[in-house]
Protein 1
Amino acid sequence: MVDKIAYPVQLIQPDGLRVFRPDYTSLVRDIRPDQLRDLYEDLVVARRMDVEAVALQRQGELGLWAPLLGQEAAQVGSARALRPDDYAFISYREHAVAYCRGVDPGVMTRMWRGCAHSAWDPSSVNVTNPAIVVGSQGLHATGYAMGAHLDGAEIATIAYFGDGATSQGDLAEALGFSMSFNAPVVFFCQNNQFAISEPVHLQSPVPIAQRAAGYGMPALRVDGNDVLAVLAVTRQATQRAREGSGPTFIEAITYRMGPHTTSDDPTRYRAAAETEIWKARDPIDRMRRLLDREGLLGEEFLARVQATADAVAARLRSGTVEAPDPAPLDLFDHVYSTDHPLIDEEREQYAAYLAGFAGIEEALS
Amino acid sequence: MAQEFRLPDLGEGLTEAELVSWAVEVGQSIELNQVIGEVETAKALVELPSPYPGVVEELLVVPGATVPVGTPIIRIATDAATGEPPARTPVLVGYGPEAAAESKRARRRPATAPETAYPDGRRPDASPAARLAARERGIDLAVVAGTGPSGAVTRNDVESHTGSAEPSVPSERSDDSETVQRETRTPIRGVRKQTAAAMVRSAFTAPHVTEFVTVDVTRSVELLGRLRDLPEFEGLSVTPLSLVAKAMIVALRANPSLNASWDEENQEIVTKHYVNLGIAAATPRGLMVPNIKEAQSLSLLELCRAITELTATARSGRADPVQLTGGTVSITNVGVFGVDAGTPILNPGEAAILCLGSVDKRPWVHEDELAVRWVTTLSVSFDHRVVDGEQGSRFLSSVAAMLHDPASLLAHL
């Protein structure tokens, strides 16, 4: 699978026509009409959720949000290739991965609202919480995978990161360790063309996937806006991991159609003409064209998808605006898994500090 | 129940933002997440989605105003009423909450005639904008022929009605309203406000000097005529402005002090080794000076194309902030209005601005005889703190020489 990494794997063209690739098509042979429709629904729901969260940030309900617009297929395709006992280590933009892993949309925004350290229990859904640290996901996934390997568990871990993260030392170490220890990791790079404002060609003069060659790691490129192709290559890579064949590097070529985060203005560093090119490769449009060509698109189906998406968005909104503010002393919970004398001391000090305000409030009222 | 939407912190740790425009008006029904306006922060221009569905009750901030985070900017009447009087709750699409809106207007315009009672007991269908326009003009909606859906009266209907009806009812207007109409009071905001501030700042910080030169540009006019026939230039506006721009960029190489700025804070003169060429354009939103980035590296053809695109986007009101900032030197073309010459005010932060007058056939001494030649007047204003008379004069005469004989431009291409 290493030889022609310059040619990304594609199973659906932007116009919705299938591509003849027996080697990869065989990996998604079980994706029948119903499963195709489910994938389409996931894509639409992911985008709808994202739109709602951006609106919530603009309305002052979230401190920040990293929109995934344009990257739905890369996330849904890879997440749907995972089994329940596989483990995903995500960065800050993988809202669709979290959704596909079964995270309740009602809690998805908690970290972004600043009302919880951790939005969900990672081990209940085998997906970590959003992490702003760039590149750490590779190390965490490698460590977890090595542990699982030692335990004899036949699972895969997957590390999500972007093109910019491949320039980080953390990721270099992760690639090296995972190869040395034959760790069952999939390094899933969403090359969305920008490390915030830095275009990818300034990060690497060669395709990002080629960087894996230095570690002796098999790598391939996939059309990241083609949900079926992403599903196929991720299935192949996770299968290699589970069989004990070691790590794989996947570069999913996609495009971040929105800003880096809600604090960013992409018009300052990229031209509208470029965005137009990628609009024609929109992952959702492509899937809809495929369904249409294959006669799987009915009004009833579209209405059902829209209703599901709206319901998920409504759940995300109500979960956000109704999220309770944490009690100040909750700050000390979950720092250690067991009681810790230093934490206990700090908790008491802070409680005493807070108690000092009680008298003031009474005096003022 | 009325909800106020307070300006949120749209970046991380921003303290204020400028309201650029409203996308909704008072009385309009809006949905959850419908875009209500645009806000510009120090980081980005962003659209604001409404956090409430309902009817816009009041816009609390005028466009162009910069307000601190936390300021209420819009009030929206929502259906989520608990103790509201029932009369206001059934809000139909397209109708404002009448009681609130009218009491407010009544305070502002006590002279406005009350609305007539309609024979069939109902008011004619009309959009809120049309109602406002009718009220402002004192027109009874019942006499306006509606062309909207199901015969609803639109704002256009009201406006065209005003036009036709005014001459027929001149004496009905009181003296009072006539005096009102002799003056129009326009709030200073948006582009006008920014232009004014920029001009005042420029005029009273940079000591301006303006020089003039009148030059025979017949050869340039002939050259432009030939360029227009070339297939490469098809569809582009090949005008004296493009040639002047090229000549100016070339002349700046020998006179870099005109492509500079005065840094008061650091007590330094910043000489730029690139040219971001500003072109003053009259647009529907007012005066804009979008600039062509890195103009020093553009060929004449690329320059023509850039000017054509730049003025088109500026006129359509779509110039983005990148195009409007970072200019290093500017051109203003008053010649298009048939004017001989001007003494332009510097675009703030720049050291020079060239003004192109109209290019006309005039009597001119050519080869010791009186001849009819294409002649124009160029002027340049410069910041005398940065540029001395010598450099300013050399620059202007150099531009003039290149326009007099455009063949000399070839030496620099």
Protein 2
Amino acid sequence: MDNHSANLSRIRTVIRRAKRWDMIFGLTGLLAMMLCVLTLVALFAQMAIDGVPRLSWDFLTSFPSRRPGQAGILSAWVGTVLVMLVTVTAAVPFGVAAGVYLEEYARKNWVTDIIEINVTNLAGVPSIIYGLLALGIFVYGFGFGQSILSAGLTLALLILPVIIVSTREAIRAIPQAVREAAYACGCTTWQLVRDHIVPYSGAGILTGVIIGMARAIGETAPIITIGALTFIAFLPPAPFAGEPPAGLFDWLFAPFTVMPIQMFNWVSRPDPNFHYNAAAAGFILVFMTLAMNGLAIWLRYRLRRNIKW
Amino acid sequence: MSASLAAAAPASLPVTSERLKKKRTRHMKEQVIEALLFFAACVSVFTTVAILYILVSESLVFFEHVPLFDFLTDTQWTPLFADAHYGILPLLSGTLTVAGVGLLVAIPLGTIIAIYLSEFASTRVRETVKPFLELLEGIPTIVYGYFALLFVTPLLQMIFPELPGFNMLSAGLVIGVMIVPYISSVAEDAMRAVPMALREASYATGATRFQTAIKVVTPSAISGIAAAYILGVSRAVGETMVVAVAAGMQPKLTFDPTEGAGTITAYIVQVALGDLPHGEIGYQTIFAAGLVLVLLTLLFNILGYWLRRKFREAY
């Protein structure tokens, strides 16, 4: 009997010790998460404290200046908008087409394998390498120069894998029955893709496009590499402005700057007054990317709930 | 009715060939579309080929001027000075030091968070934290650079007063925090893919959550976790803006994180900002440096692939 109760108490000790480890790890996990979250909250808080006082209508409508109090981000946000326009126009058709091809057309052979491995690997290439690629190909190879067009195409290449992967995921979620029904009615593959696959996966593709764009907006390194200027006090030409040969697309070849580069420029200056400008620009940048990512996540959750095949 | 039949009969032959023609054009249209889509899918392959071509061809010109031996053994990197030295070692030491500090932060934190989210947290916590982590992945890196230079460095200087304004420690720490979400979300996905039956079997033998997590779930998901680490390594090595802002841009052969130094990526940014003329040796140095960076990430990726193969668990 004595032996039995001693055994029991020993077992209880073992259990208690095991449970204590459980609790310790649970607390460690919470702590680790809190550490990350708090660090980031500190980041935002500090940026907001430094930056928000600088935010004003003037800040959005002024060019950069040597005097920190008068400097603004007009050329930066206009540049960002135009570069994003090029990026979307280039990346979406290619990305969606590639995704559709890989899901609906591709046969299982070595060519397809190579393409798939490539898409995966490209996602792991450091973004600055895309900058070197663009410097060699777009800027000097094709002679686009250090222009909005070069920057837009560079970012398009960069986010292509994101769009391809999300397109494929969205397409894979469409049940096989839809395809069988379409083929049974005599549809060709293209008719199936155009009338069913792309419309049904549209929202999923959109999610991927938004995430890709949010990433592209924040990318600095590849754009610095192709030689974006850091101080620009003019806007790209408006369509058809200026002398008669001026066309609709002159702005494509204009020099430019974008928000992250403007911020980089201000952070790198020794004068602390410029740091407030950097904080304000960073605040806007983070707000934009968070809003876009949030929209994408919300879209995805909503979709998962609503689709009943 | 018979009249209409009679009218249709003579015309029936041409109608068939009309249909055949329609079918043929339809088929051709399909083929053209498939070719176009195939071309779009090939853009990614073209990109890879173009990256390799550009890096290698420009580097070849570089290596005509600089012997490979000097490149690999010289301990100074001063390509823009009058007394030019082209030794990649200082850039490599900077890159590896910053990435090392970052991984020392990111791997433990990322793993703990992944285990916590997958094995300990309630569904509600997980569903709130996961989107939040995804949100953090999207924050521009230049913002983290700002954070490293103007928040973390002053903070560290309160603890270590002799710390210089540009140092690899704060850059590395911030990169670490930055890549935690990548590591934790990929590792958590891998752990969630472990079948429930394994956990149930473990609980049935009387194991606690912690024991199950450490001894059953983690080993089963190890290939996915390795993939997460490799992703983290690639990010840390290729990260540009944080180091360009906070680590200083002076290439120095040192592994001491409390010093400032240059990394491969920071050097490329520095040269790109300096408006170097196309075709000069200084211009080609960034391609040689870029080639080293790509080879480095490639090395880690192959290592990761090998690890995944070696430790893959078949349930």
Protein 3
Amino acid sequence: MLAAPVDKEARDRGAEQLRETWKTPKGFRYCTAVNNSEIGKWYALSAFFFMMCAGVLGLLIRVQLAVPDNDFLSADRFNQFFTMHGSAMMFLFAVPMFEAISILLLPGFLGARDMPFPRLSAYGFWCFLIGGIFVMSSVLFGVAPNSGWFMYPPLATEAEGMGSDIWLLGLSFIEVASIAAAVELIVGVLKCRPPGMRINLMPLYAWYVLVVGGMILFAFPPLIAGDFLFELQRSFDWPFFDPERGGDPMLWQHLFWIFGHPEVYIIFLPSIAIAAMVVPTAAQRPIVGYSWIVLSAVGTGFLSFGLWVHHMFTTGLPSMSLGFFSAASEAVVIPTGIQLFAFVATLMVGRVKMSLPMLFISGALAIFTAGGLTGVMVALAPFDWQAHDTYFVVAHLHYTLFGGMVFPLMAGVYYFFPFITKKTLSKRAGRIVFWLLFVGFNVTFLPMHLTGLMGMPRRVYTYPSVMGWDLLNLISSVGAFIVAAGFVVFAIDLLRPRGRQPFAPRNPWNAGTLEWSHDVPEENWGVRSVPYITSRYPLWEQENLVERMDEGRFYLPDAPELKRETLVTTVLDAKPIQCLRVTGPTWITIVAAVFTGGAFIFPTFHWYPPAIFCGGVAIASVIYWLWTATSQIPEKGKDVRDAGLSLKLPVYASGPASVGWWGVWITMLGDATAFASLVFGFVFYWTAKPDFPPAGTEHAMLSYLALGVAALVASWASIYRARIVNHQGKVATTRTLLVAAPLLAIAGSGLFYLSVANADLDPTRHVYPAIVWAVMIWTIVHTGGGVIMQCYCLAGAVFGKVTPEHDADLWNVTLYWHFVCLTVVVAGLTIGLMPRVM
Amino acid sequence: MAKTEQDEERRTLSEEADSLWMITFAGSIWAVHFVVCYGATAAVCAKLGGDAAAIMTLRLALGGFTLLALAGIAFVGWRSWVQWDFLNDWNYEHALAGKEHRHEFLGHASFLLSIISFIGVIYVSLPVLVLETCQ
Ligand code: HEM
Ligand SMILES: [Cu+2]
């Protein structure tokens, strides 16, 4: 069947339909686009812009430190600059850049038309842009955060002005966007692969996306929980980190580094992933040790969570505890090493062509190895006591970041540029960029090892001349400008207009993976037809694949209804199970993002009423967007789509077969992690503080609490039951249950609230009542969200959006409520029972 | 609605349920072991201070727990070695599109992960062997 030629007329008609369906809006409606190729491009350019801003701050820091006793910057400004430099590099550049590139490339790797939730990526992008501009511009007004990128209390809690609030709220906002993108990417890898691409055939990049997405899901929530407590302290004086009233700054350090260490790997692994795509192409052969690389990636993901305390070696923790972390830190070297060895092995057995991307990869290897060696040094607790907070650490950190992130990323830009823009970057300029960066980098950071060993501390804004650090610092500053020159050349080459430049060949590196089947010149449909995959390097190993894709001989070669579609397949074996209608251009995501931004930004000025208003509008726009665009019931007779090659697929899916269900499930894993961090805080105070809970204090009222928990569990049971009876077609019972569920949830939330509010628990007095309040608030915010969702289902049932056969919304809300139910029970035990037995 | 497609997801997932669990087991054992070691030490050191007897008990208990964890990981490793079935066909690439390759790949994967977890657990427990006080 595959070999049978397709009638030319049908082929042209299909192409025309696809072109029409996937066309990008023109004019100023361009910004309503949601297609992964546009969103990815904007995302990447914004992240690059923030990187340049942060780089300028880095340069200004180096100018200040170039000579002793310099007064180019005031101490306060210097503090703002290094804080924003670090924060912006980590939150506005490194993580968003990974997500941007993945959104841009992933559908290409997977032969998919788009990501599963295009509007979610658009929403995430606009949130990122708004939040990023807000946080970054605080530098211009001299009100930027100034307590270091890790914001240690009490320095940051006590800090004057709104810098700390900007950091907490602005970056929490961006973290929400990061998590949204992570969910999207994970579901994309799991459910949107081309038919036949079993889990053992996935491109390595997809594996890394899976691992890194998972890490984001477990690493960011603790920080969000920390931000939540921190902001409660800043705004309402709840003493979570105030030792005077039972609080403990160490809790912040724990929560921050449970995020912060994996963050380093969250930055590092995607760059390794790029290397994993570049290396086999350079060697012109399949990667050596595919399983080993996959496993090392997964293993690194796991182990990196056990390392957070190595940033806290000097905080006076028991040395036995330190020992665990020191040991675990050394252990993580093993999987990291395996990945590097696999690359080297591939290069050795292949016929390497030293292309520009390969040049950057080799630079990365050299620099990263040096950074890894110093890393092993600082991971040893006794050495760390010596080098802690000196420039030695600054040197180590930049060696790993440049070697592990910036250089591989540059390799990726040069490698994938023809895929993204259909043009090539200049080879000559590329070599200049490489050498400027490589030389400049070493000139800047190599001397810092010495300055550090000679005792120069981090984060000092100036130093006296007598210490003998002068020359080394001057060299570092000169080096920084060489690096900057490299980036300027790069930016010019990247952004210059390319109208008259000829198109790049279609597969310029002769690579083997699916993204290089792309169309030149640009077509917005992703792939002309979705192929059937039987190997890891289909372009090398499956004959005539590209010709057949082009001729539309595979799946979905047309769009008769002019609706955007992509295939959904099973998680393990990629068997096609649904033809998913994906959403198109819209304003609603921008509206939602702007108002979400308001809800986060107004509180930095302590303007709560407008913040609450914005929050309300944001929720309303999200509901509108879901109602009008997701789980649409297909018309009668059009609920099955002929996808080609005699494959007939349903258009509608619910439960585990649908992408929405997986999206909820993955989001809730992250949410549960944040809640677990709050409970961790509760237990932490108990171990760390002799007076927790303080003697003679009141507790949350048991009777109310027990009733509240019971009502909420009953609400969960109703929604769960509603899903089951709805499927059996008992419409009346379903509606009754759907009315009962929100009523029970409201009653339960009220009782839960009263159990704390009616007790004599003043959250400003001591950390114990404060954390009880925090757990309570967290819980009822979730039950409140649950009420909205239950009402959404009720409305759906009444207005025919939810029927016995079409019950995706009910499945998703029930899944959400499984988690809410768990949260409610654990919260009840934590604030009701635990303090009474402690 | 086309029921068969909807059930396809559940069918393959349950077919490989064992090996999917197995992939997560070794890493999870490492994680639980880590958290227990850390949590128990923190609790004993914070609540009982430098009490030598308590620390001795802690070290013995953690030592025992470590052996348990290692045994668990070894078991997972052995099961996945069997699933990988290496000696049968000497295949460590699993680059083909068959059910068998997917199955063996999952086995290979969890085998390697158990090696890493095994080493990880040993590393984490070294301090329990050598350190005798909280400070
Ligand atoms: C031209 C390139 C760069 C220069 C000249 C530079 C310079 C510096 C300097 C001098 C510091 C120390 C500030 C102090 O302790 O007083 C610093 C800190 C830091 N840098 Fe960079 N940097 C560069 C690129 C990067 C990149 C690419 C990243 C991350 C992807 C990064 C992440 C950080 C972080 C996280 C800190 C710690 C901030 C803090 O202590 O709060 N830097 N940088
Ligand atoms: Cu670390």
